Amino acid sequence: MDTDVIVIGAGLAGLRAARELTAAGRSVVVLEAADAVGGRLRTDRVDGFLVDRGFQILNPAYTEVRAALDVPALKLRPFGRGVGVRDAAGLTVLVDPARHPAAAGRLLRSPYLRPTQLARLAAWAALPWERLGDQPLAASFDRVRLGGPLRALAEVFLAGVLADSRGETSAAFTRSLVGWFLRGTPALPADGMGAVPAQLARGLDVRLRHHVDAVTRRAGGVEVAVAGRTLRTRAAILAVAPADLGALTGRPAGPMRGLDTWWFAADAPPSDLTYLLVDPERRGPVVNTAVVSNVAPSYAPTGRHLVQCSVVRDTPATEADVRRHAAFLYGVPTAGWELIVRHEIPHSLPVMAPGGRRPDPDLGGGLFLAGDHLEGASIQGALLSGRRTAAAVAAALGEGEGTA
Ligand SMILES: Cc1cc2nc3c(=O)[nH]c(=O)nc-3n(C[C@H](O)[C@H](O)[C@H](O)COP(=O)(O)OP(=O)(O)OC[C@H]3O[C@@H](n4cnc5c(N)ncnc54)[C@H](O)[C@@H]3O)c2cc1C
């Protein structure tokens, strides 16, 4: 045997699994096809800007983030706790009244916070599982008769979080994500979201530019074909996204949802807010936008400003559409903004279908799965999956040694 465990894929799930197994005394090699660790969570430096590969935020309330990461070392820069809403009446910031009691009177007059609709949203959040059942998000909102501006606001906000404009995602999964938003204040690491996988990878044996071509179960282990060689291992973890899983297992690729992020550089900040801005009336394709450098100044060189505009890929958008909508959202001209890069990511998030069951990570014969598609389409889900799969692998290897 070349090693106890080979992990295929250095995304969050694979790195977490590798860390856990290494800490348990196993020999672990991580094989990653790309030129850096992180998978869907990477940061590039472009013309002095830090640009995440698709706008993402880190919720420090995620229990797996706290368990797996040195959070203070990430130097988190928090978003404002609330959301900026642009509509025909102008821009309103809906802040968390628990943290901004002075705003309570203004909030009560907002059309988005009518008591009846707020009570219905609270009912949606609190409905016991057995009564909510699992159904598409839109149907679950119908069920509690959520409507009006608050529903429009919830839908556009969640479209950006779920990469789903149609409300087809599991209501149960959506509620769990909303719960995390209520518990924590999302943030950006000062060095970019790529700091998260960089921290996880420290000290591990990660081999970059190692694309695995095949995995084959053999008596007593697994053969991994990579770069013209065959490595033998007692267990292999397929920590690749659902879209790439088919190539290794022969099963159909798992469906995923897409997001595009347009990153613009501006000479003047279009707003001094640190909130996500949304347009519940959806005058254009942008589901959320933020002046990222207001949140984390390290994302832009001195004197310049970085703006992200996110679009769900099920709504095709041109650059002109995005600039026009951003101009409405910020109330400033955007023609002078420089487009730094546009990330088109068709495979952003695994589809979280209503009624979906958590698959068993143990495929048998020494092969295991890890990834956000097992535990939920999020950083929390990916890290949790890595930990659970590591435990399953450790148990299987322990049995092989007769140690129970
Ligand atoms: C645009 C976007 C926005 C998001 N926003 C958020 C957010 O705000 N909050 C949040 O919590 N989550 C967000 N997510 C989700 C989060 O990034 C993912 O859930 C998480 O990164 C998935 O990690 P993973 O390890 O499961 O998979 P991946 O990151 O996909 O890792 C799989 C790895 O396997 C490698 N690989 C594939 N095939 C092979 C092969 N044959 N050989 C070797 N290596 C291979 C890939 O190169 C990759 O590195 C977002 C994702 C995207 C793309």
Descriptive keywords:
four-stranded antiparallel sheet, eight-stranded mixed sheet, Polyamine Oxidase, Chain A, domain 2, 404 residues, FAD/NAD(P)-binding domain, globular, alpha/beta, binds flavin-adenine dinucleotide, single chain, 14 helices
Structure explained in plain terms:
32% of the residues lie in helices and 27% in strands. The radius of gyration is 22 Å and the shape is globular. α1 (12-23) runs parallel beside α9 (195-201) and α1 packs parallel to α14 (379-400). The protein folds into 2 domains: 3-41 and 194-254 and 353-400, FAD/NAD(P)-binding domain; 43-115 and 152-191 and 256-350, Polyamine Oxidase, Chain A, domain 2. The chain is of the alpha/beta class and 404 residues long. The protein has helices at 12-23, 63-68, 104-108, 115-126, 129-132, 137-143, 148-162, 171-183, 195-201, 242-249, 292-295, 319-330, 372-375, 379-400; strands at 3-8, 28-31, 43-46, 49-52, 76-78, 82-87, 90-95, 187-189, 206-207, 212-218, 221-226, 229-238, 256-266, 276-278, 286-291, 305-312, 338-350, 362-364, 367-369. It contains 14 helices and 19 strands. β11 and β12 form a beta hairpin. The longest helix is centred in the C-terminal third of the chain and has 22 residues, at 379-400. It binds flavin-adenine dinucleotide.
Q: How many helices?
A: 14
Label the CATH architecture of the largest domain. Answer: Alpha-Beta Complex
CATH topology of the largest domain: Polyamine Oxidase, Chain A, domain 2
In round numbers, the mean pLDDT is 94
